[in-house]
Structures are given as C-alpha cells and as structure tokens.
Design brief:
Length: 367
Amino acid sequence: MICEIYDSTLDPSLWPQVLGKIAEFVGGQSAGLISRDSVSKAGNAHYTFGCNPHYLKLYLDQYAKLDPTTAMFFFATERVASIADFMPYDEYLETRFHKEWARPQGWVDWVSAVLEKSATSFAFMSVMRDEATGLVDDSARRRMQLLTPHVRRAVLISKVIDLKSTEATTFADALDGLSAGFFLVDARGCIVHANAAGHAMLLTATFFRSSGGRLVANEPRADRLLGDVFLASARGDAEVGTSGISVPLTAHDGERHVAHVLPLTSGARRPAGSAYRASAALFVHKTSLDTPSPPEVLATTYKLTPTELRVLLAIVEVGSVPDAAEALGVAETTVKTHLSRLFQKTGASRQAGLVKLVAGFSSPLLS
C-alpha cells in the first residue's frame, strides 16, 4: 500500500484506488484528500473514494462552512483526530452538519490528519466510518497514524511535480507563441530545445538544418561564426558579452534574417541554461535591414528627420502628447505637427500604431 501511495505521485489517477485501500485498512468506507480555507471555510475535494457525488457537492458548496472539524487548522501536521477531539459527541449529534449532511449518508464518525497547511488554508486526509463500523477507536487511529506520513510526503512530492510540469508547459507555450525562431543549444551547437517557429525553420531548411542533432547554418561563414559563439558562450559571458551578438542570415531567394545569440552562463539566465544543458539561446527573425540599431533603422526606412525620430521615440517611451512635449522641452503644438508628419510617412493612423511599428523593429532580447 505504501508503494502505491508513492506511485500516485507520478500517476494521480491512482489516488482514488489508493484511498479505497486506505479506507479499508483504517476501517472506513469512504476517504478523501480535501483542502479547506480557514477564512472563507470553503473546501475543495482533490481526490475521493466512496463519496456520494451529490453530498460531496453539498459539502463543498454549503456544509464545509458548518463542519466542526475546521478547527483542525490549528492542529500540528500529521496529528490524527476524530470528532471527539473537537467537541463532545453528544453535542455533535445536535449540529446541522450531522443532521443534514452526515446522518443522511450513514456517517457516524471519521478520522482525519492534517497533511499540509499555510497561513490561511490546510489540506487533510479523512476516512469516514458508518454505523456498522462505529466510532473511531484506538486501532483506527493507530493505522491512520502509520499511513499519514507517507500520504503527506506523496502529496508534497506531487505538488512539486505539478509545479515543475506547469512551469515547463508554460515555458514551452510562451515560446511557441513567438514569431521568432527560438533555439537552445549547447557548446557544440546541439539543439536542446526549439519552439514551433524554430522547428518550421528546420523543416524548410531555409537558413538552418539539423545534422546529427546539431544546428547548422546553410551559409558557411554564418555557420563558422555561430559555432564559435556557441563555444564561447559555454566559457562565460565575457567571451561574447552579456547582451550577445547578432549574425546576419541570407536565404537563396535573398530574404534576410538576423540571428541573435544570447549566452546563458551568468546572472538570472544561468538557471535556464543549467536546467536545459544549454549554453546559448538563439532568436531568429526576419529583417530587411542591415543596421542593428532600431532608431537608425526607423529613420532610414521612413526617411524621418532627426526631430521626427525624437518625437516618435518620445511618444513610444512617454506616451501622451503633453508628456512628450515636456520631455522634449517643446510646445505641444510642435509635437502634434511632427506627429502628423509621422502618420503620413509611416502609414500609421494612431499613436498605438506607432508603438507597434517601433516594437516590430526592436530586438527580441533585453539589453
């Protein structure tokens, strides 16, 4: 049974079956892993065995607030308790909780143990007993005490596993939402992870291909440069620079992209590299410009004057026309005049359009 308790950490679908065996061992007919909020008194049934769905819903929606065992929140973890530990049994029989919820199901007592608790909530395991089994006795308490530490550890392990799975899933989903191709590579250029756009690039082999699991650029010069950068990244940011470098890529049809290589060997980025055995992250996105500077790119592309560029950047950074005028030290009418010219030159019709336009020329990496 203990082995099956720990098996449930990897396969949560086993919990109902495990709870059934726990109920039988302890001397009950129903069991559950429940969490309660000590402030709102609301409850949540995570896994159950032998519970009537109708009454379980009633408990969560209404009767959890009337449950006298709410005081279990003040008990130490792994302490085993029954109704008699909370109130005299005769008084319990007069409660609405017993008359309206427990008695209609035939439950006369239950034995519970706190598994985990925070400042405002707690989780516990509970085994219900019917009239044939009778009130909780010393044998039931002893058997519950034997299993509680294992169930508690299993619940904590499951919680950690769930958090890591959620983090990994969120990480992958976020990367798949990028229009830029994204690769995590090790010092040899072997692909550790790629997002959806990255896989598409490998499939079309426009700029890259995979050779023996290694990311290979079609252009020999770019491939040599990237190989040197990946190797240097493994030796530390000082070799590459904490902001990384950019490598131009050109397809056979003349379409141009740029690859930004970001080292994963220091600071806040080190855990990401360690977790995925990667030394560098590679972002690849389309560009039709040779210069790496977004402001210069904008000025060249839309033939902006220096003043128009300053106004554009002020609108993006500051926001409103009055704030931009104050930041630039000019009149609001001057900003409005240049803003009108910016709309004409860029084709944008609103300030939000200008912000989107500038964002499109920015590197996907933080400096």
